[in-house]
Amino acid sequence: MSILKLSLAAATALAGSVGFAASANAQAFYLQEQAARAAGRAFSGEAADTGAASLWWNPASIAGMTEGEATISGSLILPRGEVADTGTLIRRPGQALAPVGGDAATRNPINNGVLPSGAIAIPLGDRVAFGLAVTSPYSFTTDYPETSWARYSALKTELRTIDIQPSVAVAVTDWLRVGAALNVEYTDASLGNALPNVLATLPDGRQELKGNGWDFGWSAGFQMHNDVATIGVAYKSAIKHTLTGDLEVSGLLGPLAASNMSLSDVEAEFYTPAQVIVGARFRLSDRFTLNGQVVHYGWGKFDAIRLGAPLNTAIPENYRDSWSLATGVDYAASPKLTLRAGVQHAQSPTRDGERDARVPDSDRWNYAVGGSYQLTPGFTLDAGANYVDFKDATIDRVTAAYPGTAAQTPILTSGELQNAHAFVFSLGGRLKF
């Protein structure tokens, strides 16, 4: 059996791994917890708010600042749920279809995590400002045990991104702010999954793929405002990611033993989605502000993972474009205390019939409460708490180990994401200087 053919099995694993943060909070493998202030109102109105805390959503947010501002936030993400087998079958070479075996359910496969973010903005005169945001929009760790029914799709997967966004914004007129930014993004991924040997009595083999890379995108936006309302519109470009790394296959026995290997300089390319963000804030009274936000995600760009030499193939993903809608309220309870609440609904970009155990994503509702307290004239503490409720969804993508070889082993996946939810607690601060 050729090493090239066997490598396709590892590439298939990569296709799933890039997108598994589904149960964390936002959408597919995007995490939106980039400011504690935003978390408290379910991420509504961020493109229309001002200051360094809104830089991720709209670079125009810092235009016209009269003093410097820095913000830092951290979110504790506690995902819960079960990925259950509902009849997955495997067909080894020359054998009939049989149950895949293993533990019939895996509870809480996504690890708890802490997501940090921060930003700083400095005025350059009375109309121009420079800002820098550092975020981690695509990050997670997930663990399936080696005895899981889903082991041939996923064992341990780690994904980390660091997005560095330098921004420039200008208050063009008294009612118009504009801004633009560069997104410099580092991605590091490590993933593994089991490989079936030709006999069910033999222990599983294993493959692991690691890679990293630097890539670039851009953001731009504007805000129109008066004494009552602010409308913000922003665009974040899709980013083409190119990861280069190593593949190791081990533990194959019998006729597959010659295919154990280590392969260097494996390259994979995929896109993270563009975003069109429209936000609004309306001051209903001296105390009440109503917020709203709609985001269109260009997940259709994540149609395939394209593999370079020596594989030279593409693996379909077939994500669809999707939406999120959010509304929330800010209430100034006192000159120092602001209370917040909000609700958000997000549509999953994954499709029935093409969802696998690495991406058990589904539509979800996000319910939020939070607030801010001004501890000193220059420092404000922000906090938010979110409960995210996920719809049950099928896990039903048909896959195959060793595709195109005499050892091709189809795996007819039949599973379900059940009782999934997440608690997210965010804490941060804003300092003026």
Written description of the protein model:
- With 433 residues, this protein is mostly beta strands.
- Helix content is 4%, strand content 55%.
- The protein contains two helices and 25 strands.
- The protein has helices at 3-17, 36-39, and strands at residues 69-85, 89-90, 98-99, 105-107, 113-124, 128-135, 140-143, 156-171, 176-195, 205-225, 229-236, 239-250, 261-272, 275-283, 288-297, 304-307, 313-316, 322-332, 337-346, 364-376, 379-390, 393-395, 398-401, 409-412, 415-432.
- The chain has a 14-stranded antiparallel beta barrel. A four-stranded antiparallel beta sheet has the order 3-2-24-23.
- The termini are far apart.
N-to-C CA distance: 65 Å
Structural class: mainly beta
Mean pLDDT: 91
Q: Tell me the quaternary state.
A: single chain
Give the SSE map.
Blueprint: H1 3-17, H2 36-39, E1 69-85, E2 89-90, E3 98-99, E4 105-107, E5 113-124, E6 128-135, E7 140-143, E8 156-171, E9 176-195, E10 205-225, E11 229-236, E12 239-250, E13 261-272, E14 275-283, E15 288-297, E16 304-307, E17 313-316, E18 322-332, E19 337-346, E20 364-376, E21 379-390, E22 393-395, E23 398-401, E24 409-412, E25 415-432
Antiparallel strand pairs: 1-4, 1-5, 1-25, 2-3, 2-24, 5-6, 6-8, 7-8, 8-9, 9-10, 10-11, 10-12, 11-14, 12-13, 13-16, 14-15, 15-18, 16-17, 18-19, 19-20, 20-21, 21-25, 22-25, 23-24
Protein traits:
433 residues, mainly beta, 14-stranded antiparallel β-barrel, four-stranded antiparallel beta sheet, 25 strands, disordered N terminus
